[in-house]
């Protein structure tokens, strides 16, 4: 008489392993929205930096004296800027110029300040 070896999986074992697999996949999928949100915030910060850099370069091109104050929006109306200036040298030959870029993301306002010194090149 020959004895059969039943070494297969039962239905219960397969269902339990599938349940564990589904729980693992759902845990990984839950991380995707967090990653997308982080990528969107990073993209906004990169745009704000590019806009501020262009504004700073324009101010440096105009040179001394820099406009005392200004504000407006960029080509992307989501981003706004404010320019403020202050004399920092006793002789008044340096102007501390700050460009603040603001934008809204998911109901929250983000601000980033970019600062440079613009010298007076003349006497």
Secondary-structure map:
Elements (H helix, E strand, L loop, with lengths): L10 H19 L2 H31 L6 E5 L5 E9 L6 E12 L2 E12 L4
Antiparallel strand pairs: 1-2, 2-3, 3-4
Structure summarized in a few sentences:
With 123 residues, this protein is α+β, with helices and mostly antiparallel strands. The protein contains two helices and four strands; from the N terminus they run ααββββ.
Task: Provide a descriptive summary of the structure in words.
The chain is an alpha+beta fold and 123 residues long. It has one domain: Pantoate--beta-alanine Ligase, Chain: A,domain 2, CATH 3.30.1300. 41% of the residues lie in helices and 31% in strands. The chain has helices spanning 11-29, 32-62, and strands at 69-73, 79-87, 94-105, 108-119. The chain has a 4-stranded antiparallel β-sheet, with helices on one face. The model has no long low-confidence stretch (mean pLDDT 86).
Q: Round the mean pLDDT to the nearest integer and report it.
A: 86
Q: What's the gyration radius in Å?
A: 29 Å
CATH class: Alpha Beta
Q: Termini, distance in Å?
A: 113 Å
CATH architecture: 2-Layer Sandwich
CATH fold label:
Pantoate--beta-alanine Ligase, Chain: A,domain 2
Query: How many distinct domains?
Result: 1
Q: Major beta sheet, specifics?
A: 4 strands, antiparallel
Shape: rod-shaped
The ordered string of helix (H) and strand (E) elements is HHEEEE
Q: Structural class, from helix and strand content?
A: alpha+beta
Please bin the fraction of helical residues: 40-55%
Give start-end ranges of low-pLDDT stretches: none
Number of strand elements: 4
Q: Which sequence of strands runs across the widest sheet?
A: 1-2-3-4
User: Beta fraction of the residues?
Assistant: 25-35%
Give the oligomeric state of the chains in this entry, treating copies of one chain as homo and distinct chains as hetero.
Answer: single chain
DSSP helical segment count: 2
């Amino acid at each position: 008489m020959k004895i059969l070896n039943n070494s297969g999986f039962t239905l219960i074992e397969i269902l339990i392993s599938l349940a564990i697999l589904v729980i693992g996949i759902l845990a990984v999928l839950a991380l995707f929205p967090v990653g997308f949100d982080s990528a969107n915030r990073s993209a906004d910060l990169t745009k704000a930096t590019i806009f501020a850099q262009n504004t700073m370069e324009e101010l440096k091109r105009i040179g001394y004296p820099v406009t005392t104050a200004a504000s407006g929006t960029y080509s992307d109306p989501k981003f706004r800027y404010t320019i403020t200036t202050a004399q920092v040298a006793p002789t008044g030959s340096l102007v501390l110029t700050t460009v603040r870029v603001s934008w809204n993301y998911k109901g929250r306002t983000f601000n980033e300040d970019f600062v440079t010194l613009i010298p007076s090149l003349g006497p």
